[in-house]
Please model this.
Amino acid sequence: MEFDLGARATSADLDRIEMTHRPDLAANELRAYFSVSGQGKYLRVYFPHVDIFRVIDDMHQPLEEHGMEKVGHVPEHFAYRVEGSPFWAAQRELFEISLPGSTHYLFVTGGNCLDVISRNKPRFSWVASNSD
Model:
């Protein structure tokens, strides 16, 4: 996925995550704020609608992916579009039938991994605080 954090992924931390239900749009908006060492601003990753998400410690991800072939992994990269992960596989049937077009996105920091399944692409922006 094309996004340049401007730093190594291990220099980022998930600072705040916010989900807002918008009944008027039948949407669950997700905003994740990341602090990045050397940056005076926060990176906001925004999804207009998210079907499911989770945050796990980055130590658990290698256990989950044990034995899987990794294609396209770039060391110290922050944002990925993922195919064939165990997280996706656990929900695959539901998403293929009920929510076609869903995509698995992964955001990796020095301490956490944020997995998001959404039919919307993420929007990235730099903001002054983690509440903008």
About this structure: Residues 9-127 form one domain. The mean pLDDT is 83. The two ends are 24 Å apart (CA to CA).
